[in-house]
What we know:
Layout: H1 2-27, H2 31-54, H3 60-85, H4 92-98, H5 100-113, H6 117-122, E1 123-125, H7 129-141, H8 148-162, E2 167-169, H9 176-194, H10 204-227
Antiparallel strand pairs: 1-2
Helix pairs in contact: 1-2, 1-3, 2-3, 2-7, 2-9, 2-10, 3-5, 3-7, 5-8, 7-8, 9-10
Amino acid sequence: xxxxxxxxxxxxxxxxxxxxxxxxxxxxxxxxxxxxxxxxxxxxxxxxxxxxxxxxxxxxxxxxxxxxxxxxxxxxxxxxxxxxxxxxxxxxxxxxxxxxxxxxxxxxxxxxxxxxxxxxxxxxxxxxxxxxxxxxxxxxxxxxxxxxxxxxxxxxxxxxxxxxxxxxxxxxxxxxxxxxxxxxxxxxxxxxxxxxxxxxxxxxxxxxxxxxxxxxxxxxxxxxxxxx
Length: 228
């Protein structure tokens, strides 16, 4: 029973570890691998909360751990990725600007953690850091085809949108099978286009089958409930 209760936190820690590995790959110059790891982190982040509710393992520890993982994977890792791919040419100024992204993201997460739980079911106030970090990762994947000025504008826009008062519709009420399948297909197609002549990061061979199996399980379970 204790192991079952720990599964959501282990998934969250996997998300955090993806962020750490992404930073390492970015430092080595393997930018596409670094971006893919952030996308894997997004998949894990979409699973942990639902697993916790499914296994009745919700806890304050899990919520705090999730925020810490998010600031690393979707705050620090994307900022390093943008720095190593473009901002590095501006020297210390580029490093300072890249460091603003996790600062805005941390403020966004802290504000979310103290917000009304009822409001968060219907909408997010400001762009979630997960989405902002994922957008930067995808821009990096297409870095050779997208002008750097666009990356700079999007980077700046995401910083301010995270701490803005704009209400973003929440996807928490969207049925998991439909939402999870769309996310899986989108990421799978994106990876196929980018890595058609290359290799996936080793973690992709573990994360993707697990995520697809989880979505399939929820889909079957949802159908069984309708027949009951």
